[in-house]
Amino acid sequence: MEVTDTRAEWLPRVPAPTAVAQEHPGLDERGNGLLFVSHLAARWDWHPRLDGPGKTVWAEYAL
Question: Is the pLDDT of residue 52 over 90?
């Protein structure tokens, strides 16, 4: 799954796997979307948009 956001002033941080269990990533973020993604996805990350401002967050889920 990929979600693109055109806002460039805020970039997500990808927590280390051990940090996910020790703290609640996303609570200090602007929304709770990445909190859900970090707990449900097998892997996730983000990259800058190539065709304009902003970023794309992607996630892979294990079935």
Answer: no
Q: Output the CA–CA distances (angstroms, integers) from residue 62 to 3, 26, 37, 54, in the order listed.
A: 18, 21, 12, 27
- Tell me how far apart the alpha carbons of residues 36 and 40 are, in angstroms, rounded to a whole number: 6
Parallel, antiparallel or unpaired: strands 43-48 and 2-5 = unpaired
Residues with Cβ within 8 Å of 28's Cβ and at least 6 positions away in sequence, in order, are none
E strand or H helix at 21, and its extent? helix 17-22
What the block records as the tokens of 17 is: 């796997």
Q: Which two tokens stand for residue 48?
A: 């800058």
Q: Is the pTM of this model over 0.70?
A: no
Residues in the chain: 63
User: What are phi and psi for residue 60, nearest 5 degrees?
Assistant: -120, 135
